[in-house]
Specification:
Elements: H1 10-18, H2 82-110, H3 115-132, E1 140-142, E2 145-150, E3 153-158, E4 167-172, E5 181-188, E6 194-201, E7 207-213, E8 219-232, E9 237-244, E10 247-255, E11 262-267, E12 274-279, E13 285-291, E14 296-302, E15 311-314, E16 322-327, E17 330-335, E18 344-349, E19 359-363, E20 368-375, E21 379-386, E22 389-396, E23 402-406, E24 413-416, E25 426-433, E26 436-444, E27 449-452, E28 464-472, E29 478-486, E30 497-500, H4 515-522, E31 526-530, H5 540-544, H6 551-567, E32 576-581, H7 584-594, E33 601-605, H8 611-615, H9 623-630, H10 637-646, E34 659-665, H11 673-693, E35 704-709, H12 719-750
Length: 751
């Protein structure tokens, strides 16, 4: 279902409020977070170092991005007696263990057939990884100093002088006893005397904050367990949020003066709300952001007086989301307040911050997605997406003008770099696509131009063509598709097609660079990304039109996209595979039930496939919060029937299914393994029942495989584990489509 991103900020806010899961990058590189840019990376993980309002991610071979998660129990729920509970739990645990053992034994037998191809794919991906990321990680420029992370170490160098002989090591996970953790987030104090770092292991949802005192010999000052977000209010005052049972509702302040002390400063009483901390770009305020999926409330901490009580900006109003920046005694507010209910930039004096005083500064055009936003002293840059194309809107607070700048047509994602100093005259960011490694760009406010920075090219000869299509859905809505293929490919109707879908929580399909996508293009595959309703590609209305009682629209969109691809000559059903992760499993699994003939194979990662049973169990941690996405079947019989109409698990029936490969995690707290086991068992039985009823020459039984990972979780896996997962998944898809070719060849030979 849904996961939380491990960083604060606007992208955090927007993505956390309006969606749930996507892919999580897992490279050992410093990842920056900008005012709005996950979302949902790291040692193959997310590294949030900028304190911006958004967060963006580059993704390694296929992992899942983490989002928000709450644990609540509905009042009035009838609780069985303890004896019945104990008996039921014991029976369930025994069944679970037996199923788990059977699936592990089954995988041990089946996996041998994929070993050779898995090995080849791994070697190719490892080679690509060396070239793509040999240029090092993004950097935090702080005055004349540059901070950057590589291989679990944090380094300091002088600006533009990061030669190996001129860097200092400030922190090492191995040397300080954190060898099993990855660096997730970095915050430098204003005077650069302290550095706060969050560390997270692959099998835990909670992070540890380590505070280092910098100097000639950096020393570890303090270790704070179970921390989610943190920011420096002053040189020696740190605010942080504590995380317990995947909930974040308390804010603490701790000092590093001669008389150290820690104090609770804020507690959120509503379990639907999640709290994080953000520092405005000019370092004037810390904001305590309390957000549900649809509503926000922000409190200000004055960094000049960090011991004063926080001040409320605007009391929470149902349906109004907002996030705050500051400039020249005015608050700049990104909000859904007013019509239309899309994001808009407004401002108000700090002294009169209520929404009745908010004045419009900038509004998005229709069907435009706000991807990111970065504030500077005299400018604001909006990173936007419209009809699949990326562009910038540069707002001048001096001339009160807006300039639009188009970006290269191949670009699909922004990756912002850190800008701790809001007075800088240049904004740095990277552009990428699934098959284009990140390229660095700089926008100069003084020169008013965009400059592409010199980068080391990947030594691969590849001509990739990008096509953008519109498929007409069942209700005539036009649904965007982005297609990539090798320009040297002939007979595209005979090439393998890999279709990607998500369609939930207002999250865009992740289209950052991944080595495996580049490899597939090089080997002749066609890649298609279906931007169906329920996602966020065309703004908030696109999400609203695909959630709750509109969920079936996303399914209709997906079907229309695949059919259009085939009609236009991009492959055909027997060469088509469908991939999805987490909540994307709802639409993928639903299509598998309603139109199994459209694809030959399907690969799912930690899929959410039992919507109805999950939403009926209020004791589960995600159920109550998820009602805003899926509806409440306990309170609404029509909602129950509607969910039942598309739920993948509920609609399995004897028919000819495509082959299915599912990756699941023993430590997944968001998609429990037991539910995935039940789905696999039921799907396998239905496929076998169909085969037994329709036995005839040439009839085939689909391979339904569950690959259970002992390491990793819904949010995190090491680079090595992620590499193995992707290699096995692609080996499976290659084998399935090879089998089609083999059967066709055999059939022609017989004739």
């Amino acid at each position: 279902m849904k996961v939380r991103m491990s960083c604060a900020g606007l992208q955090n806010l927007l993505q956390r409020l309006s969606f749930s899961v996507k892919h999580y990058s897992k490279h050992n590189h410093l990842q920056t977070v900008c005012f709005y840019s996950k979302l949902k990376p790291k040692k193959c993980h997310i590294l949030d170092c900028s304190g911006s309002m958004f967060t963006h991610w580059t993704v390694p071979p296929g992992t899942i991005l983490p989002w928000r998660f709450f644990s609540c129990k509905q009042e009035g729920t009838k609780i069985p007696s303890k004896r019945k509970q104990d008996t039921s739990i014991a029976t369930s645990e025994l069944l679970y263990k037996n199923l788990l053992k059977l699936e592990q034994e089954n995988w041990n037998v089946i996996s041998a057939r994929y070993n050779a191809m898995t090995k080849r794919i791994k070697e190719k991906l490892e080679e690509l990884h060396k070239y793509v990321f040999c240029s090092g990680s993004p950097r935090i420029r702080f005055g004349q100093n540059v901070y950057f992370e590589e291989n679990g170490c944090i380094f300091l160098s002088k600006a533009d002088d990061a030669d190996e002989g001129n860097v200092d090591i400030l922190f090492s996970t191995k040397d300080l006893g954190f060898s099993d953790a990855f660096i997730q987030r970095i915050r430098i104090s204003p005077d650069q005397r302290y550095m706060a770092i969050s560390l997270k292991s692959e099998n835990s949802e909670e992070a540890t904050c380590v505070v280092m005192k910098l100097g000639h010999f950096p020393i570890m000052e303090e270790v704070i367990p179970s921390v989610f977000s943190f920011e420096w209010a002053t040189n020696d005052v740190l605010y942080y949020t504590s995380q317990k049972n995947l909930k974040c509702q308390n804010v603490f302040m701790t000092t590093f003066t001669d008389q150290k002390h820690t104090k609770l400063v804020y507690t959120e009483q509503d379990a639907r709300f999640f709290v994080d901390i953000y520092c405005t770009k000019d370092r004037r305020f810390l904001t305590i952001n309390s957000n549900s999926k649809t509503t926000s409330e922000v409190w200000l901490v004055d960094c000049r007086h960090p011991f004063k009580l926080p001040a409320l900006v605007q009391a929470r109003t149902k349906g109004v989301i907002y996030h705050v920046e500051h400039r020249n005694d005015e608050l700049y507010i990104l909000t859904t307040y007013g019509e239309p209910a899309e994001y808009k930039l407004m401002k108000t004096p700090v002294a009169s911050s209520g929404m009745e005083n908010w004045q419009l500064v900038y509004a998005l055009e229709k069907k435009t997605k706000l991807v990111d936003l970065e504030m500077f002293s005299d400018h604001c840059i909006m990173f936007l997406k419209n009809a699949g194309h990326l562009y910038l809107d540069v707002i001048s607070f001096i001339s009160h003008s807006v300039q639009s700048i188009k970006l290269p047509t191949w670009a699909c994602e922004f990756e912002l770099e850190s800008h701790p100093e809001h007075t800088t005259s240049t904004c740095y960011f990277q552009l990428t696509s699934p098959v284009h490694p990140p390229k660095r760009f700089a926008y100069s406010f003084k020169e008013n131009n965009l400059i592409e920075q010199a980068v080391q090219e990947v030594p691969i000869i590849m001509n990739c063509h990008t096509t953008r299509l519109l498929a007409k859905s069942k209700d005539e809505t036009l649904v965007p598709i982005t297609v990539f293929h090798n320009t040297n490919s002939k007979e595209l109707h005979r090439k393998p097609l890999l279709v990607h879908v998500y369609g939930a929580y207002g999250i865009d399909l992740n289209m950052s660079f991944k080595e495996e996508k580049l490899m597939l293009i090089e080997e002749g595959w066609i890649l298609a990304y279906c931007h169906v309703r329920g996602g966020g590609e065309l703004g908030l209305s696109w999400h609203k039109d695909g959630c709750q009682h509109n969920k079936l629209k996303g399914l209709h969109d997906l079907k229309a996209c695949i059919m259009l691809l085939h009609e236009l000559g991009f492959s055909q059903p027997k060469y088509t595979a469908l991939v999805a992760a987490s909540a994307g499993g709802v639409l993928a699994g639903a299509l598998c039930n309603t139109d199994p003939e459209l694809t030959r194979a399907m690969a799912l990662q930690a899929p959410f496939v039992d919507v109805l049973n999950t939403m009926m169990k209020t004791h589960l941690p995600l159920t109550i919060e998820e009602q805003e996405e899926w509806g409440n079947p306990l309170a609404d019989e029509k909602c129950m029937e509607y969910i039942k109409s598309y739920c993948p698990y509920q609609n399995i029936k004897p028919q000819c299914y495509p082959s299915v490969f599912i990756t699941a995690y023993e430590n997944d707290q968001r998609i429990p393994l037991a539910g995935v086991l039940r789905y696999v068992q039921k799907l396998r039985k239905a496929a076998l029942d169909h085969a037994s009823r329709t036995s005839k020459e040439g009839n085939w039984i689909p391979n339904i495989i569950l690959d259970i990972q002992e390491n990793g979780s819904h949010c995190d896996s090491s680079w090595e584990d992620s590499l193995n997962e992707v290699a096995r998944r692609l080996a499976f898809l290659n084998k399935e489509l090879e089998e089609v070719c083999h059967l066709e060849h055999h059939s022609k030979s017989c004739k």
